[in-house]
Amino acid sequence: MNNNNMLQEWPETIVRVQSLSDSGLTSIPDRYVKPPNERPSVDGNDNDESTTSQYGASSNDANIPVVDLSGVDSEDGSVRAETLRRVSEACREWGFFQVVNHGVSHELMDRALGVWREFFHLPIETKQLYANSPRTYEGYGSRLGVQKGAILDWSDYYFLHYLPSNLKDYNKWPHLPTNCRKVIEEYGREVVKLGGRLLKVFSVNLGLEEGFLQNAFGGEEIGACLRVNYYPKCPQPELALGLSSHSDPGGMTLLLPDDQVTGLQVRKDASWITVKPAPHAFIVNIGDQIQVLSNAIYKSVEHRVVVNSGKERLSMAFFYNPKSDIPLEPAKELVTPDQPALYTPMTFDEYRLFIRLRGPRGKSQVESLKSPR
């Protein structure tokens, strides 16, 4: 199999979307124009409140659930039970929720967003020192997938590994701003703790042992990586997407959004809901691997990002993933004669390669893995 050969280099010259945006162009290149059925229906100046789905369903009065996570540790049994119930309902009904009072310092969250904002406003020559390749995706990037001629998303990004420790390569982490590496290290440590707390909650809610999902992920040997997304201003936001519709391939995602500029949209039934971020909240979503482990009791949900013409936007997606070489399959406790195992075992490494070759493709990845009935 020659997949590794396919992943050596990008098939075409990389264009930085930020440079396109900064050039003052009034129409976007054809490479960024989405097919009509994928285009968002947005008001060109401000897509904060005027977003409607391509199906015509309005999305400006709904929001994903917001959960006060401090209730998980409450000594009041009814408060704890209600908090667990709210997380369970969010996982089953939405695949997405926001957490407040999550234990991560607000000041650290602000610092993390601040250093990355500074990074993306550095001179292009400095950022180019960290240009990535499809071999690892680590570094400064502007496209996903290696398909030649693909329609591209209106965004740049920075991707880096945080865990396991042997994949952590500080040379791939920006040296500017000067405190960037220190902030990334501290931020990663705190978000990993939060991810561990949430996995316990998910396990209990699924009727499993508290440590079940953590153990299935490899115990202490989980994988974790960070993708910082930068969405420059776009002169034709109604034709483009910052990130195409997809479900996250890993275990769980903890997103620190820009709470001043909306952009994330979550598919709910036939509508696209524009998420309104709560201040200093993390947006948590179920990834494909938890869908597999829970035998689709919890489902990863399609989401995408719209852009706007008036404001840039930055977000930080922290992926809390299984160890890459453990075969994952539905928990035996969740497999019954009425609900047989939907998936055959596959490692996260195998799964991730499948996606890196093709780029974001809605929910087609995880659906294609279902066992033949």
UniProtKB/TrEMBL annotation:
Polar residues bias locations: 50-62
Q: Where is this region: Disordered?
A: 26-63
Mark out the compositionally biased spans (Basic and acidic residues): 31-41
- Looking at the keywords, is Transferase present? no
Listed under catalytic activity are: jasmonate + 2-oxoglutarate + O2 = (1R,2R)-12-hydroxyjasmonate + succinate + CO2
Q: Name one GO molecular function term.
A: L-ascorbic acid binding
Q: Which Gene3D superfamilies match?
A: B-lactam Antibiotic, Isopenicillin N Synthase, Chain (2.60.120.330)
Matching SUPFAM superfamilies: Clavaminate synthase-like (SSF51197)
UniProt keyword Iron, yes or no: yes
Per UniProt, the keywords (alphabetical) are:
Dioxygenase, Iron, Jasmonic acid signaling pathway, Metal-binding, Oxidoreductase, Plant defense, Vitamin C
Which Pfam families does the entry link to? 2OG-FeII_Oxy, DIOX_N
So which cofactors does this thing need? Fe(2+); L-ascorbate
One GO biological process term is:
regulation of defense response to fungus
Q: Which family does it belong to?
A: Belongs to the iron/ascorbate-dependent oxidoreductase family.
State the PANTHER family in the record: OXOGLUTARATE/IRON-DEPENDENT DIOXYGENASE
Q: What is this protein called?
A: Fe2OG dioxygenase domain-containing protein
